Structures are given as C-alpha cells and as structure tokens.
Amino acid sequence: MSYTIPIGPYHPALEEPYKLELECEGERVRAAHLQIGFNFRAIELLAQSRNVIQNIALFERVCGICSNVHTLTYCLAVENLLGIEPPLRAQYIRVIVAELERLHSHILWAGAAAHILGFQTLFMTCFRLREIVMDLLESISGNRVNYAMNAVGGVNRDLTDPRTVQEGVHQIRRAVEEQLIPVFTTDPTVRARCAGVGVLTKEEALAWGAVGPTARASGVAQDLRQAQPYLIYDRLDFSVPVQESGDVLARIIVRALEMVESCLMIEQALDQLPSGEWRGQLFVELPPGEAVARIEAPRGEVFYYLASDGGEKPVRVKVRTPSFVNMPTVRLMLKDATLADAPLIQASIDPCYSCTDR
Amino acid sequence: MNLEELRQALQTQSPFIEKKDGVWCHVPALDVHRMAQALVEREARLITITARPDGEGECRLIYHWDCEGEMLHLSTLTQAGKVDSIAALCPAADWIEREIHDLYAILFNGRETSPLVLRATDRSGLFLSNGNLSQEDKR
Fold first, then answer.
1. pLDDT band (50, 70, 90) for residue B96
2. Three-state secondary structure call for residue B112
3. Does A357 touch chain B if contact means CB atoms closer than 8 Å?
4. What 3-state class would DSSP assign to B9?
C-alpha cells in the first residue's frame, strides 16, 4: 500500500524546522521531498544595509553552532578585497578557535546521533565532553556561543592562557580516542542501526556537490584545509579521514576521526604560537571590486562572495553554507530506506537549517 | 586547470584574470550549457551561483566552480531576466537556481522553479529585489 507521511516543520530529530514528505510503500521510503525556508531571515539583504564592521556581528548569527566560521570566512573575503593578511599570531588564534568550534560541532552532533539511536549514556558522555570545549571557548573569548573573535585583519582577543587550552584539548582527545571512537565503531547496536544505512555513493556525492564529512564519508577526499590551505594550516601536520562506504556509519567514523585530528592540530598550533601583534582594524574602507573566500567548516565548505562599489556598505554578499548543498542528497540517502531509519539518515549529514535558510 | 583549453571549450575570447581568490572571467553572452558540460567533463564541482543586479534591469550571474581545488568564477548576464538552467547537466545547481529564482525572479529556461526558500509568499523575487516590494510588503 502506498501512502505519504508528512513530517515537520518540527524536525523529527533536531530542534530546527523543516518539512519532509515521505512517499512510502509499506515500511519502505520510495521518494522523499524536502521543504526548507522556515528560518529565512534575509541576512544577505540585511548585509547590504550595514557597514563592513557591523556585518561581522550579523554574520555571526547565520548559525548558532558554527558562528565563528561565518565571521572568519566573511573577514577573509574582506581581507582578500583589501589585499591584506592578518598578523601571524592572529592566524594561529583563528585556527585554534576554528578547530575548537569543529570539536564542539562534531561532539554535539555525536551526542544528537546517540540520542536518536536510543543510546542515552553515550549521549551524556558526548554532552559532558562538549561542556569542556565550551568552557575552553569561553576562557578564550568570554562567550560560549557567539565568540566575537574575528575582526578584519586580525582578532578581537589575544589567547592569554594557552596551557589551559592545551590541557583541556588533551583531555578531550583522550576521551574521544578511549570512549567515543571504540563505542561508535564497535558497539553492535550502533553498527546494526548505521552500517549499510542511508548510502550516498561517491558519484552521487560528486554530482550533487556534497561537501565536508558527508562527501568524505562517500570517498570524496577533499578538505580545503589540505587542498587549498588558508591561514596557517599548511604549517600543521594532519590527515584527512576518508571512508568509502557512504553510509551513516561512515559519516560517524569520519567525524570521530576528525575530532582527533582537530585536537592534534590545536596542540600543534599552541606549541607553535608565535608572539606579536594580533589586533584587527576598527575602521575599514572597501575599495570597489569583488572577492570571495571559503573555508572548511565543521559541516563542509563555507563560501562567501563580497562586492563593493567603494561605499561603506557592501553592494552584495552571498553566503553559501555546507548544509545548503548537503541537504538535497538526503533524498538519495532515503530512497528505499526503511521508514524507521529516516530520522537517523537525515540527521547523519548534521544538517543546519539556520545556515541553510539564512 | 588548462585555461587555454577551457577558453576554447567555452568558445570565448574574454580574458581569464588570475587573482588570489581564483580565476575570474566575464562572458556577457556565455553559453551556460556549454560551460556546464565542459566543467562537468573536467570533474569540476559547482560551488554556487551568485546573482547580482547590474542596475539596468538584468542580473549578473557568477558561476563559482572548484576545479581540483582551484576556484574558477565565470560570469554572464541574464537576457530579459532569463538564463538557461544547468540543473539537468549539474544536479548541484538544482536548489541554487531555485533560490535565485525565489530571490531575484530570474527564470531558468528548461526547468521547474517552484518556490522553495520564500515560504511566506508565493511571489518570487520578494526579498532581494526591492523593486518588487509593494507598500504593504515594505511595511
């Protein structure tokens, strides 16, 4: 018997709105239709009515989890248009905060995935770890969600206590290596729910332009930190985890291994942290022209386009978030899946509707 | 990326300008089908498309591609508010074209562009095309 199940706009797994319509035959999903836009705030239009500095605060609010990557990418686009580079110490601080934010995002997602799997002790383990990351970010920036760290040409705060960050990151790495990775990769319940479920092939990932862990779990070995290094990533020794199976388990493994790599990157960056200037500019005059910037955010590539006519406000800012390109692939992952797996499959790309809708 | 080979594939004499943030090229009457075919064959990934009003009633569309890690930005102009869709050749363009349609009322020839992003209204071009705003909308 064929029937259609409407789900949403309250999300079946996460606390964000979007709508899913599943065409089913018995327990099998034959087709899925996604509707987004419930969070649309016209941020790109708002950016045209604010000056360059005011826009940093605006773009910090594109996303509540990866707020830092948006201000970072925006500042990089402004710096590309101005033809300037931030001081070396500021670049290191930017990388440390960006990798802490990746840890925060991946651990939060791992906790949410554990919750969907019905594995509550694992959920609590993840959220306890997340607290450590948030405490570290608070110790650096004074904030736990919107860090307000990035400025054009530098950062707003120095990193004054690297030892505390080093100790906290070491603690997180041990917990990820000794608890999260073994449980997520060997527990029979996790494997039963995730292995072979919600497959996205490499060809599909390439055709649909998937990015980040979603693409890397399908065998697409691209990570901008390595493929086109920005800031000081070319000074760090790290590997890019890639899996070939393209299922939910592969997406879990990629993110789990990326957590370890992020810890190692932060430890190296703290060891190498140079002294010197770090402050950004308080006043910026944009020349006429256009520029772009992109970075590897926790969910994948974030892209900003910036155009100026020489006035104090940009004439156009385009924001392309990773969830915007990853979400259409959920339709492919859901095809012929069982209905009970649908919440886990669509949550496995770590979707962010706030980012997607902007 | 072999730019000369690509220029021949696109059949254009417009210059490729290399900058820190990639290679830029503007072709006023770009055959976007030919562009998509040439770049998909070269395993390039469509990052996104930026629409930007040119002030004379048309929009400049910039197609941002990732070619083996390098960025390529090819731009063209809409003709009477229309441009060919590349979604059939490049599925990644599907939602991107729909969003541009919703925000700027640009028509993409050869595809359905049912409203996707703007849930508050059935009219496309509401938010970023100020000219489409009614007094009620502006309030």
1. very high
2. coil
3. yes
4. helix
Q: Give φ, ψ of A217 to 5 degrees.
A: -75, -15
pTM of the entire predicted model: 0.92
Average pLDDT over residues A64-88: 93
| Contact between chains at B48 and A37 (C-beta distance less than 8 A) | no
What is the number of other CB atoms lying within 10 angstroms of the CB of residue A275?
A: 7
Name the residue ranges covered by the structural domains of chain A.
Answer: 44-357
Residues written for chain B? 139
pLDDT of amino acid B11: 84
For A260-277, write each residue's pLDDT tens digit.
Answer: 999 999 999 999 999 989
Test A291 with B120 for CB contact under 8 angstroms: no
Mean of the pLDDT values across residues B13-40? 91
Q: Which sign does the torsion angle of CA A222, A227, A231, A236 carry?
A: positive
CA torsion sign, B107 to B112 to B113 to B114? positive
pLDDT higher than threshold 80 for residue A310: yes
Map tokens 């500021």 to a residue. A90
Residue of A nearest to B91 (CA): A208
Cβ–Cβ below 8 Å for B21 and A293: yes
B19 strand-pairing partners:
B22
Domains and their CATH numbers in chain B? 3-13+20-132 (3.30.460.80)
**Confidence grade of residue A57 (pLDDT, cut at 50, 70, 90):** very high
Q: Which CATH class is domain A44-357?
A: mainly alpha
Inter-chain touch B73–A38, beta carbons under 8 Å = no
Per-residue pLDDT averaged across A73-89, rounded? 94
For residue A131, pLDDT over 90 is answered with: yes
Of A206, A307, A327, the CB nearest to B45: A206
